[in-house]
Amino acid sequence: MKSTLTNLWHPICGVQIRDMGEKRYLFKFFHSMDMNRVLKGLMWTFNNHLLILSKLRIGEGPLKIPLVYVPFWVQIHDVPIGLFSESLARLLGNFIRVFLEYDGSDLGKENRNYMRVRVQIDVRKPLRRKKQDKNDDRNRFHRDG
Question: Got the DSSP string for 58-98?
């Protein structure tokens, strides 16, 4: 696991991985930039298992943290480009689960006709697949990544 994730993450100052038991691992990054890049990055998997990452606070026990929340980038299709905005992204993101951020970069590039919204998902609950609009039943949510 260590060599695979180290090759994938390329931490500049290194990472230490400790098996805590109960299918939990403690990742110790030696530079905050490395840790933030991993936490902010894609959803991570190892051997087809989703890695649920959480930043430890001072005094927190790593076995006490409920590892059930994962940030996902989702694509929201069939929204007229003129309506793309952070306020709409926030509204739709909170409909899906919990809004985290809106990716307003690259709008209009490469014919991107969808909004990218990062949401926090509780992996114990099914994802809402559709939101019906009064005027159009084609609005769909897609996991991006």
Answer: TT--TTTS---EEEEEEEEES--GGG--HHHHHHHHHHHSE
